[in-house]
Design goal:
With 417 residues, the protein is an alpha/beta fold. It has three domains: 4-154 and 214-305, Bira Bifunctional Protein, Domain 2 (BirA Bifunctional Protein, domain 2, 2-Layer Sandwich), CATH 3.30.930; 157-206, no CATH class; 322-410, Rossmann fold (3-Layer(aba) Sandwich). Helix content is 35%, strand content 22%. It is built from 13 helices and 15 strands. It has helices spanning 12-25, 31-34, 59-65, 73-85, 124-141, 156-172, 189-199, 216-232, 276-282, 329-344, 358-368, 378-383, 404-410, and strands spanning 29-30, 42-45, 52-55, 93-102, 110-119, 146-152, 237-238, 250-259, 266-274, 297-305, 322-326, 350-351, 372-376, 385-390, 395-400. The chain has an eight-stranded mixed β-sheet, sandwiched between helices. It has a five-stranded mixed β-sheet with strand order 12-11-13-14-15, sandwiched between helices. It has a two-stranded antiparallel sheet with strand order 2-3. Strand 4 (93-102) and strand 5 (110-119) form a beta hairpin. Helix 3 (59-65) crosses helix 4 (73-85), helix 4 packs across helix 9 and helix 5 runs parallel beside helix 8. The radius of gyration is 22 Å and the shape is globular.
Length: 417
């Protein structure tokens, strides 16, 4: 949880205003606005014999069937339902939501939580985007020493094998486990392991590690996320002790912590991951849609202690004169770095980072009616350049990335009137 004394902000409202401004720069919009769009409560699901209607369960019904590894995972259930209910189709959506809660580490301290959700994208860019935005929020708040810890628990099948071996391992150390936890070893070995990790139990570091159970496809998916972080230049550590409930999470799980300057202890600022299993409970695609297991989703939750009034100043965003488009996987990996450079220079820009096909992005650029398009393909990504195209004349210039912001300001390609 962010402690205001560690930040440059005077109160919680100031912190939230800054955090929301950064999130909205990257394209996140308020869940409250998205929730105003109507959506049917029942969804038609394909069946070999005849279509049938699947009723979306309530958050309470889901909670009663789930095993939670952390107290704050319960809050994710209602958040996931609201986010998935806001979708009218299977398109991608970037959403932010504010809620009240308590810190995982300081349960007696009231806090406000800013959740950032990427709904509808199964690619690693979703998690990378969440991590980059959360890190930018922490940097803007003045947190100098930050540690990103990341792990992968793989798919349901690989995590089943992992949890089975955890149970075997814990039974070998049953005598050293407290009597209150022993009965849970058979039913919830992962939850017991997480409790042992939090208590600093000597057997915890030698327990099986989830990354050892990943298939080749799951390893490739995880390395893809790490490659986004490396191209962006964001340091990280692989930490097998970053874990959570399998009823909530799949594949990547991550935490961002601050380092206390006096004690050297880590203070958890944000946590998140891919919550496809939970999202599947509240969504089902229309007949013929690509996601047969529901809509994929990822989240990061950022907590801050409450101090002062909670009136948030919401600055109106200037209409950008630019649309940033990418072509190819290498350009897509570099897109987050381009966006952060433009944000720091206070140059507004539209983007569709979750889109893969250039045709979709050009349609978006046309819809926004921007006079200029930033275009990065494989060639530009390799040469560390970007094309600045003037829509009216279709003329374009290749600009070295280190000179991009100066070029745009010099030519006044900043915002529309």
């Amino acid at each position: 949880m962010f402690r205001l004394k560690d930040t440059r902000h005077q109160n919680t409202a100031e912190f939230l205003s800054s955090a929301i401004r950064i999130a909205e720069y990257y394209g996140f919009s308020s869940l409250e606005e998205a929730a105003k769009l109507p959506r049917p409560k029942e969804i038609v699901v394909a069946n070999q014999n005849q279509p049938e209607k699947r009723k979306i369960p309530s958050a309470a019904e889901c909670e009663s069937e789930m095993i939670f590894a952390h107290r704050d995972e319960r809050a994710l259930v209602s958040a996931a339902k609201r986010c998935l209910s806001s979708l009218r189709d299977t398109g991608s959506r970037l959403l932010w939501r504010r809620s009240s809660g308590a810190s995982r580490e300081r349960s007696n301290v009231p806090s406000v939580v800013l959740e950032l959700h990427v709904v509808g994208s199964s690619g690693a860019v979703a998690e990378a985007l969440l991590i980059v935005v959360a890190d930018a929020i922490a940097a803007e708040a003045g947190i100098k020493q930050r540690v990103l810890s990341i792990n992968s628990i793989g798919s349901t099948d690989s995590s089943n094998r992992y949890v089975r071996d955890i149970g075997i391992y814990l039974r070998k150390h049953i005598e050293s486990i407290s009597p209150t936890l022993r009965p849970r070893v058979g039913d919830d070995p992962l939850g017991v392991l997480i409790q042992l990790i939090e208590r600093g139990h000597p057997a915890a570091p030698r327990a099986p590690q989830s990354m050892e159970y990943l298939t080749e496809d799951e390893r490739r998916k995880f390395w893809n996320l790490l490659e986004y972080l490396e191209v962006f230049g964001l340091p990280y550590e692989l930490n097998p002790q970053v874990l959570g409930s399998r009823d909530c999470w799949v594949h990547s799980i991550f935490e961002i912590a601050a380092v206390d300057e006096e004690t050297g202890a880590r203070i958890l600022l944000a946590y998140g991951g891919r919550y496809d299993p939970l999202a599947a409970r509240f969504s089902a695609p229309p007949v013929g849609a690509g996601h047969v297991d529901g809509v994929p989703a990822a989240v990061i939750s950022i907590a801050c202690e409450i101090h002062g009034k909670m009136t948030i100043k919401h600055a109106e965003r200037v209409a950008p004169a630019l649309y940033f488009a990418h072509l190819g996987p290498e350009a897509r990996r570099r897109s987050l770095g381009v966006m952060e450079t433009l944000r720091k220079a206070e140059i507004p820009v539209y983007q569709s980072l979750l889109y893969e096909r250039i045709g979709e992005q050009m349609e978006e650029a046309k819809r926004y009616a921007v006079p200029y398009i930033l275009l990065m393909g494989h060639k530009e990504a390799m040469e560390n350049t970007i094309l600045v195209r003037e829509v009216s004349t279709n003329s374009q210039n290749a600009i070295p990335l280190p000179e991009l912001t100066n070029y745009l300001k010099r030519h006044r390609v900043v915002a529309t009137a």
